[in-house]
Each structure stands twice: as C-alpha cells, then as structure tokens.
Amino acid sequence: MRYVDEYRAPDAVRVLLDRVSGLLQEIAPASPLQIMEFCGGHTHAIFRFGLHQTLPEGSVEWVHGPGCPVCVLPRESIDTAIDLARRPGVTLTTFGDVLRVPGTRQSLLQAAAEGADVRVVYSPLDALALAREHPDREIVFLAIGFETTMPATALTLLQAVREGLGNFSLLCRHITTPAAVRAVLQGPDPALDGVIAPGHVATVLGSAAFDFIPRDYRLPVVVSGFEPVDLLHALERLLLQRLEGRCAVENGYARAVREQGLPPALDAIGRVYELRGEAGWRGLGRIADSAVRLRTEYADFDAERRFGSRPTPASGEEPLPCGEVMRGRLRPPQCPWFGTRCRPDAPLGALMVSAEGACAAYHRYRGSSAP
C-alpha cells in the first residue's frame, strides 16, 4: 500500500536496527533503558511487528503508558451511559470496543441484552444519521477519546446545530493527553530514559504540546508514527539525544505532524469544548484539567443536562491492578488474573477489552517474548 509499505520495508528496518544497536553499544547502559510509549497503538505495533525481539537482549525495556481512551473510561461513565440507554425513547450509540468495558454492575453489552437500546457506530456522523432517520427517538452519542477524536465530535455537533436536529445529543467523555502524561510522570514511577509521544494526538495538538516533558521532567521526547520504521527511527533519535546530552522534543512524524498542530481541528475544539476540570480516570484516579465538556451555548446538546442523568457513583477502587499497568509499574503478565480469569473473551478490566489495551496486546501476541 502506497505510503505504508515504505515504512515497513525490511531493508530500511535492517539499516535502522544496525544504527540503533550501534548506539546502544556506544551508550552501554548498565541496565535496560526504560522507554515509555503512551499510545496503545504504539504498544500493539511493537508486539505485532516483533520490535521488542529485534534489539540486543537486555538493552531496552518498553514501558506502556495510559494511552487508551477506552481503558481509562471510568465506571461512572459506563453507568451513566447505561442509565441513558435504558430510558424510553433513547438510543445510546457508541464505538464497538466500549460495549464490554465493565461498569459498576454490568457493561453496555449486558445492558443491551436486557433490553437497553445500544447501537454500535463507526463515527459520530453515523449517530447523526440515526437522528435524521428516527426523529421520534433521542439519539445520544457517547463521545470518547483523546484530542484525536475531539474534532470529529465537535464538527458533528456543529452540523447538528446547523440542521436543527433537536433529537441529537452527546454524552461527552473526551479527555486530554497532556494531563494524563503529567499524572504519570509526576508519580512514583520507574525512572524513564525517554518518551515516544503519540503521533495522532500530535497531528491535532502539534509537537509543541509535549514541550513540557523535557522542560519539567528532563526527559527526551520523539513524536512517532505507528509503523516499524517510525518506531525504530524514534528510538534512534532518543538514543542520540541521550548520547549527546540533549533533552528536547523532536518530530519523527513530519509527514503528519506540525509544531503548532492542525488549525481547523484546534478551532473546532476551541469552539465546542471547555475544560471540565478534575475528572476521574479508570485506574489513575482524579486528574486535574483532564477532560472537556460542551460549552454553555451547546447545553441543549449535552445529554447529561438534557436528561439529568445522575447514576449512583461507583464506590472504592477496582480490585484489579490495571492502574499499575497504565502507570508503567507493572507488566500485564505480572497481574495474577492475566490470561486466566481476565481474557479478551471474558475481561475483568478495561485493558483487556480495548483494541489498544496493553493487556490485550500481550494476550494477542503472547507467543513472543515480553519486552
């Protein structure tokens, strides 16, 4: 496939592996370098292409961050969505990998089996189409994701406003990447040697959005794409920074990312959302300035305001070490439930549910050695 094959080319991969191996020999770390990738897409690519097996043994250890919006969706959000889906005349729409995320008592899939109207869509525009086709029903879209999906939801809402679709609303659960990164880096986590930043988030926000990492935490950062050449190139640039004693943000995904981001997307985000303030994250607790809500002028399209949904808050922490995995303190196979009581077909935690979850990646590719 054009524009993809060249980033999976074996010859290019071999050249990069030789260069990375040479840099690792020159650095000669006493213990494996700790490289954190925040994006679940990066985690799956590392396993899918076997990158963790290609480097010299004991030289690099990949640390997985909380880069999966489905995995950090708190139980309270699932409970709210279920409450709405059970109401007469309401259809709750959402992405497929949200269906099996556990709420306090059940998942959306289980609620649907009991009669709640829950439908899978592939974009918010699909939900908008349902609102046009079924003017007699209230169509609610459960909007999740980092800054990557915020613009699509915002533009869909603006289209609903233009069309005057009064039966369309959003259950807004979008979250912010920089706040999550800060929450992980300022915690008592393993000492890191570098960070690979998510290319799709940087496409929207710009590489400059991660300038705070070298400034505040003295860690080198490289924004990366999602193919083998991208990730090895990012690792090479991190190693060069370490060797040269530098600490900066470098853009290794220049074919998609600009320093200041994508103006139309940022404009849509600014028009539609405002910071919600402190918000709950599954496994990570409360994080300041980590979520957005609809601005007051769009209150009529806010499902929580429209329906007054206030399910009973979940009590206590989840009895699972998912938060330790998302903070990079624990590898998935170290969880006592991994692959036994917690599996993709019967998940206990959200990390095993999502297509980008770290536990799902380990489980799917567990025939290979753990990084």
Your description of this structure?
- The chain is α/β, with parallel strands linked by helices and 371 residues long.
- The chain has a domain at 75-177 and 261-307: HypD, alpha/beta domain 2 (Rossmann fold), CATH 3.40.50.
- It contains 14 helices and eleven strands.
- The chain has helices at 10-27, 40-48, 75-85, 108-113, 124-133, 150-163, 177-185, 199-205, 212-217, 228-244, 263-272, 303-307, 322-326, 358-364; strands spanning 33-37, 60-64, 90-94, 118-120, 138-145, 168-174, 194-198, 221-224, 249-251, 273-281, 285-294.
- Strand 3, helix 4 (108-113) and strand 4 (118-120) form a beta-alpha-beta unit.
- It is globular, with a radius of gyration of 21 Å.
- The chain starts with 9 loop residues before the first helix and ends in a 7-residue tail after the last helix.
What is the CATH architecture assignment of the domain at 75-177 and 261-307?
3-Layer(aba) Sandwich
| Strand and helix order | HEHEHEHEHEHEHEHHEHEHEEHHH
Average pLDDT number? 90
Assign the CATH superfamily of the domain at 75-177 and 261-307: HypD, alpha/beta domain 2
N→C terminal distance? 29 Å
Radius of gyration: 21 Å
According to CATH, the fold-level topology of the domain at 75-177 and 261-307 is Rossmann fold
Helix content: 25-40%
CATH class of the domain at 75-177 and 261-307: Alpha Beta
Main sheet summary: 5 strands, parallel
Give me the side-by-side strand order of the main sheet. Answer: 2-1-7-8-9
What amount of the residues lies in strands?
15-25%
| Count of helix runs | 14
